[in-house]
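Aim 2 progress. For Zinc ribbon protein, the working sequence is reproduced below.
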Amino acid sequence: MKFKSSKVNEFRLWGLLLTMGGMLLMIIGLAGIVFGWGTAGKIMAGVFMVIGAIAMLASMGVYFWAGMMSTSATVIECPECGKPTKLLGKTDRCMFCKTILSLDPKHDPQANA
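Predicted structure tokens for this construct:
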């Protein structure tokens, strides 16, 4: 399994990265106006503001998607830490202790060990 944390947390991480990246792009674009780079600075500010706003909208979409998946996820109790965690797909990791979990015995690493 390629995920090192639960799938829901991975999607939330990508949403956070898009949010921070969009804000960073908007701040970089603002430098064109703050430092008075003339017409080129205004064009740069406009381009970076639009790209940053698109990244922010994409992050909103990712957060919405993660929320919708989270509401339909199966909640199980982790055998390692005993906390309730959400399971997406055939295999997933515990949101707290990162133990690999599965409802299908064919994919369950604890049953095959």
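The first helix runs from residue 7 to 34. This observation will guide construct design in the next reporting period.
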